[in-house]
From TrEMBL, chain A:
Protein name in UniProt: phosphatidylinositol N-acetylglucosaminyltransferase
Gene Ontology annotations of biological process type: GPI anchor biosynthetic process
PANTHER family with a match to the protein in the record: N-ACETYLGLUCOSAMINYL-PHOSPHATIDYLINOSITOL BIOSYNTHETIC PROTEIN, PHOSPHATIDYLINOSITOL N-ACETYLGLUCOSAMINYLTRANSFERASE SUBUNIT A
Glycosyl transferase family domain span: 192-341
Taxonomic source organism: Rhodocollybia butyracea
Annotated EC: 2.4.1.198
Sample GO molecular function, one term: phosphatidylinositol N-acetylglucosaminyltransferase activity
Keyword Oxidoreductase appears in the UniProt entry: no
UniProtKB/TrEMBL annotation, chain B:
Domain of life: Eukaryota
Entry protein name: Phosphatidylinositol N-acetylglucosaminyltransferase subunit H conserved domain-containing protein
GO cellular component terms listed in the entry, alphabetical order: glycosylphosphatidylinositol-N-acetylglucosaminyltransferase (GPI-GnT) complex
Annotated metabolic or biological route of this protein: Glycolipid biosynthesis; glycosylphosphatidylinositol-anchor biosynthesis
Residue ranges occupied by any Phosphatidylinositol N-acetylglucosaminyltransferase subunit H conserved domain in the UniProt entry: 91-160
Family: Belongs to the PIGH family.
InterPro entries named among the record's database cross-references: PIG-H, PIGH-H_dom
Organism: Rhodocollybia butyracea
GO biological process, any: GPI anchor biosynthetic process
């Protein structure tokens, strides 16, 4: 697994990578994770349970855990790591992770297959999106398989990464590549069990998210005072941290809602369940959401979910377990009011909801589906260099030649590395070494 | 004094046993790993190209100005210094009941000019660990002794310059762990 986003940072992508790796190890595969270092503690090579080796490489992150896009600086490390660990396949995560992109660009030189998972939705119009989409298209041109977490995410990735080809029958028609799969995220249902039943005298609405613009905090700031004014027995419990915390504090001051709205600040992952168990309704106001694992976790803990109808959210739960609203203030007010009346009337059963969701998403199933993708990739034939060059040249009038030059210089750099650091001199990982180290070392960071 | 070469694939590793101590020595050469079996020396002895140095100096010196002469002198001194501080061999010496000593012998092969030593007493030696680390563009296994002093745990890498490969390290690791287990644990003050 290659990603910029991993332990000790916490988040959806990080958790997904860890759970997937742990389940793959349980099924008998060997998994390592490559990420960038977080000095002073998380440097070098560390082990996480169960027998998961993590390489923390010295790359400096520039913004929120992502490193600068490079094309060559990762190759020496990647070559040594892939050869010494006898890796067959790499799985890169997250479009914003430049280590992942580089991993896909370099792996073919060593005969290693590539899989890419995209976890988020991105736009098409603003300058940052245009650039990142072009980088993504360049990387995904020669990847072996792409996994998306929802059907909406698949549409988004296919359009951004140009994962379509001219169909064989009709050269004027475009057909989506056959190697794009949808495998959703999963959660550990035992960790999100509902708490004891609560009285409906006071209804608590829980909001847990990063307080940033794209999570729709502005909508929450506009709607919360209206809800508090309309329903006297409603309390808000808002957890999370971010730049929009100021707006929430100002709103609370302005409407004198200090006793109705409680701000918890950053909530560690282990405490999420206890926070969720304090509420009856969960509100998600995201302006864009590829999957929405937070909504799923809340619904699993027995809360009634209200969310904006964006991105992949309508795909995750059946219609009777979640209420939708358009991403504007009035519709959100309507949806939350309806949720409050449903919960007050006692029509929502938390325990039954938990039992249902337990069967929907399970890490064992997701791992098995991912294994099938890996199997398909390994059994397929790898493209040779000339095919890659031809495909890369078709990227665009300017992007094509640029990426082809990068590819050729990459090959030359690889030849130089084969001479400078010959394969025989690499310190290979042996089975005895791996077992001894993973058992005796308890070095986390 | 008995000298053993326990590994056939790594003849640069030898164990010297005597009554009062034993030494795990790794010399600064190895067999070529591409199957030819030829010796790859990382510390070079006298080579014919060294005799070109006086020739070059004698050509350049008369024509050089004072600044150039200073640069030439410094270059020669730097050259001599790098040739005379090459690592000859590194070792881990185990003194039963006292501790372990990490040594690095430097010099101009085969002469030794300087030895740097680091002694770790048994009371301070907490454990011996093999871990992997990043060295420039390479990833190597290394053997490290954990010392517990009054100011926390310090790490002392064994064979820091040669960094032998895993088969050598695992042999030394097993013997050292055995020795540490056999030693009487230090008295802990309550």
């Amino acid at each position: 697994m290659i990603a910029d986003f991993f332990y000790p940072d916490v988040g959806g992508v990080e958790n997904h990578i860890y759970m997937l790796s742990a389940n793959l190890i349980r099924r008998g595969h060997k998994v390592i994770v490559i990420t960038h270092s977080r000095p002073p503690d998380c440097v070098g090579i560390r082990w996480l349970s169960p027998a998961l080796k993590v390489y923390y490489l010295p790359f400096v992150p520039i913004a929120s855990g992502a490193t600068l896009p490079n094309f060559f600086t990762f190759l020496p490390y990647l070559r040594t790591i892939l050869l010494r660990e006898h890796i067959h396949l790499i799985h890169a995560h997250a479009s914003l992770s430049s280590l992942g992109h580089e991993g896909i660009l370099h792996s073919h030189l060593m005969g290693v297959r590539t899989v890419f998972t995209d976890h988020s939705l991105f736009g098409f119009e603003d300058a940052a999106s245009i650039l990142t989409n072009k980088l993504l298209a360049g990387t995904l041109r020669n990847v072996d398989a792409v996994i998306c977490v929802s059907h909406t995410g698949r549409e988004n990735t296919v359009l951004r990464g140009e994962l379509f080809e001219q169909s064989d029958d009709d050269p004027h028609k475009l057909v989506v590549s056959s190697n794009v799969y949808v495998i959703p995220n999963a959660l550990v249902a035992e960790r999100f069990r509902p708490g004891p039943p609560k009285s409906t005298d006071i209804i608590t609405i829980v909001v847990l998210s990063r307080l940033v613009y794209r999570k729709g905090i502005d909508l929450l700031v506009a709607t919360a005072p209206r809800i508090c004014a309309a329903f006297q027995n409603v309390r808000f419990l808002i957890g999370g941290d971010g730049p929009k915390l100021i707006d929430l504090l100002q709103m609370r001051e302005k409407h004198l809602l200090q006793d109705r709205i409680e701000l918890l600040g950053s909530v560690p992952h282990n405490d999420v369940r206890s926070v969720l168990n304090r509420g009856s309704i969960f509100v998600n106001t995201s302006l864009t959401e590829s999957f929405g694992i937070a909504i799923l976790e809340a619904a699993c803990a027995g809360l009634y979910a209200v969310s904006t109808r964006v991105g992949g959210v309508p795909e995750i739960l059946p219609e009777d377990m979640i209420s939708f609203a358009e991403p504007n203030e009035d519709d959100l007010f309507r949806a939350i009011s309806k949720a409050i009346s449903i919960v007050s009337a006692g029509e929502h059963d938390p325990l039954q909801a938990h039992e249902r969701i337990k069967t929907f998403y399970d890490w064992a199933q997701i791992t098995e589906r991912t294994e099938r993708v890996y199997d398909t990739v390994i059994k397929s034939e790898q493209r040779d260099l000339w095919q890659r060059i031809l495909r890369t040249m078709r990227l665009g009038r300017f992007a094509g030649p640029i990426y082809t030059i990068i590819l050729i210089v990459d090959c030359l750099f690889f030849l130089f590395l084969e001479w400078w650091m010959p394969r025989e001199d690499i310190d290979f990982v042996t089975l005895i070494g791996m077992i001894a180290l993973s058992l005796s070392l308890q070095v986390g960071c | 004094m008995q000298r053993l070469h326990p590994l056939q694939t790594n003849p640069e590793f030898s164990i010297l046993r005597s009554a009062s101590f034993h030494e795990y020595r790794v010399e600064n050469w190895h067999l070529a790993r591409d199957g030819s079996g030829s010796v790859v020396r990382n510390a070079s002895s006298w080579s014919w190209s060294y005799s070109l140095l006086p020739v070059i100096i004698s050509v350049l010196w008369p024509k050089a100005g004072s600044l150039h002469r200073i640069i030439l002198t410094l270059a020669v001194i730097l050259f001599l210094w790098t040739r005379c501080t090459q690592v000859i061999h590194e070792s881990v010496i185990v003194l039963p009941e006292h501790g372990i000593q990490l040594e690095t012998h430097r010099g101009f092969p085969p002469l030794t000019f300087s030895i740097s030593r680091r002694f770790v007493p048994h009371t301070m030696l907490r454990d011996v660990v093999i871990n992997e680390g990043i060295k420039r563009w390479d990833i190597r296994y290394y053997l490290v002794a954990l010392n517990e002093g009054t100011t926390g745990i310090a790490l002392d890498v064994c064979f820091p310059n040669i960094l032998p490969h895993f088969p050598v390290l695992i042999q030394i690791y097993r013997d050292l762990r055995h020795l540490i287990a056999v030693q009487v644990p230090p008295l802990q003050s309550p």
